[in-house]
């Protein structure tokens, strides 16, 4: 894992998140929608706290944006979470982004984000994404953990 200061530098991506959120709406490919459903199901099976429903909003993203392929917005008054996803992502890239954003959803839903810096939130979501991808790989038989 990279030093916190480097993480803080990398996570200055609020403007790219805002660009993604404001980008034109796009319909996902059927495979993309399936991947999102599967990722949310996997996250729930891992026991992380999530709301009953998670709103997914697909946007026409841009490779020119350095960091942002997904963004999560939490409405404090209604406790509603919306995950914005770049609909131009290749389906092979999508699970990492979805798991990261589901991590944010969990932090918001549980209240765990309180008292965390943005960098700590980002690292937490990256760690969750790694665990979820490893769980997927193990379930698919790609590898198993050493005993």
Write the layout of secondary structure elements.
Layout: H1 4-10, H2 14-22, H3 30-45, E1 55-59, E2 70-75, E3 80-86, H4 94-110, H5 118-139
Parallel strand pairs: 1-3
Antiparallel strand pairs: 2-3
Helix pairs in contact: 1-5, 3-4, 4-5
The CATH topology: Arc Repressor Mutant, subunit A
Largest sheet: 3 strands, mixed
Name of the CATH architecture: Orthogonal Bundle
Number of domains: 1
What's the CATH first level? Mainly Alpha
Give a summary of the structure in a few sentences.
This protein is α+β, with helices and mostly antiparallel strands. It has five helices and three strands, in the order H-H-H-E-E-E-H-H. It is 48% helix and 12% strand.
Task: Give your account of this protein's structure.
The chain is α+β, with helices and mostly antiparallel strands. The protein has a single domain, classed as Arc Repressor Mutant, subunit A. The protein contains five helices and three strands. The protein has helices at residues 4-10, 14-22, 30-45, 94-110, 118-139; strands spanning 55-59, 70-75, 80-86. The longest helix has 22 residues, at 118-139. The radius of gyration is 15 Å and the shape is globular. The mean pLDDT is 86.
